[in-house]
Amino acid sequence: MAYQVFGNGPIDLVFVPGWVSHVELSWEEPSFEHMLQGLASFARVAWFDKRGTGLSDKVSKLPTLEERMDDLRAVMDAAGFRRAAVFGISEGGSMSALFAATYPEKTSALVMYGAFAKRIQSTDYPWAPSREERQKWIELIKSSWGGEADLDTLAPSVANDASFRRRFPRASATNWRPQPAARRSKSCARPVRSASGSDVFTTACSGSSVSPS
């Protein structure tokens, strides 16, 4: 599994990216490099490509959420982090929440950005996409992955940035081919709402808002 450790701050922090990542190529994207440097300004940071993505070995079978969560534990051990703040974005937030609930002794804090408890709408979770909307997104991945895809949804703030639109196809195609990308997107729909009961301090972020939980 590919991982990096950088920064010299007093806090140990594990950054868990979303379902697509590349620990080398991501540094070439100016906005992402800016974020990574920001984390390094106050923490010693470990981050990684989940199995099957980026520079990590490809897999023949998509790993379960529990297996991906265990990758986080393995990276912490390899980096020498006894206890760390865990920062997860998108699907990485779901994985981080499960990790914090499973290993509270290893988690000093949990931060989630753009995360979700489940990916399919239900009566008790009405703000998630409907099953039809989710299927439409999966079909879009199959037809346009490795191209510009739907940047209006994925990255609306840079959807009209011509330079970013040129860089994005390379980043997405480096991670997945269209069919595996669609299967991985489906696997992100696993709900994690039952992962609770931990005393870890949690902060949930969305856009410019921050909500301690």
Quick structural summary:
The protein is α/β, with parallel strands linked by helices and about 210 residues long.
Structure description:
With 213 residues, the chain is α/β, with parallel strands linked by helices. The protein has 2 domains: 1-118 and 190-213, Alpha/Beta hydrolase fold, catalytic domain (Rossmann fold, 3-Layer(aba) Sandwich); 119-189, no CATH class. It is 38% helix and 18% strand. The protein has helices at residues 30-40, 65-79, 91-102, 131-144, 151-154, 162-175, 178-187, and strands at residues 3-6, 11-16, 43-48, 84-89, 107-113, 202-206, 209-212. The protein has a 7-stranded mixed sheet with strand order 1-3-2-4-5-6-7. It is globular, with a radius of gyration of 17 Å. The two termini are 32 Å apart. Residues 208-213 have low confidence and may be disordered.
